[in-house]
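Sequence in, structure out. Go.
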Amino acid sequence: MGLFSSLEKTCLSDSEIIEGPKNVTALKGSEARFNCTISQGWKLIMWALKGTVVLSMTPSEPIITSDRFTSASYQEGGNFISEMIIHDVQLSDAGQVKCSLQNSDRDGSAFLSVQVMGQLLIPGGSLVVIEDKPCNVTCRALNWTTLPDLSWEIGVPVSHSSYYSVPEPEDLQSAVSILALTPQGNGTVTCVAEMKGLDVHSIDKPGASLPTWAIVLLAVSLSLLLILIIVLIIIFCCCVSRTEKEESSYQSEIRKSATVKTSKDTVGTKLKSANENYGYRSDEPRTTQPASLHAMSSEAGVPEQRSSRQPHQAGLLPGLQPFWLAHDLFASSLGPGRVNVGQV
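Output:
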């Protein structure tokens, strides 16, 4: 019996937990990590959450029972560090976390706290107040677990400022903070919520438009700008209309001038037609014309021969084209009593 007890005691002392996990505060939906430092020679490490084993580790591989619980391992100073990671932390995960070894009466434990980041708001948003007149700004933290610490950052020139925060009497997960200040210009005030045990800040920044004359000036400026735009649109429309009228009048004048010119050309053509063919006589018999033309052409043959020998005696100007020469001769031969025009 004494030998058995000695052997059992030797087996239990082969590996031990040197340092257990520490308390962790995590936000809902985030990750929580727990570390356990163990001496060499261990065979099986077990992690339990609220009394239920959720993760086991052997020297070769981890035994994972849920995707929400994974492991990591490190070596430090000859010791083994086992880490359990809880993913997507929920409020129901809050409780005791325990690290233990197989065949060991020692374990390490810690506590998981889960907090919920609620809403942080300033009712009314932008504020319009009177300069140098005291006013209050309210900030509300709604649906937080646990309640955050509320504070203010003042970016407004003030002559006095103070604030206080209290839990909502009818809602244990909400709180309210009231800032009292006397503003002396424009600026911004910021409500800050800091969660206990976490390096997490939530900020709400309302734009405090101070004082009222700034709002009035902005409204007047926008009105003047709108009026200016309307005036410019009216001027543009008038210019376009005037340009279209001028173009229409100009086109009318062009059409009128073209009509007058066409009429004058028609009248001139008629007058020219009336002045031509002076030798035409409608009462002469048609049978006598061929003989007369034959006689004229025979007599006209003599001047043509002489003119070819003495061109200056025929009364022609130098450079006169043959076409016009023939035409002149033809027109002269039609007139009665003017057959001998080309003779010397």
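Check: Residues 1-13, 207-211, 280-344 have pLDDT under 50 and may be disordered. The first strand starts at residue 17 and ends at 19.
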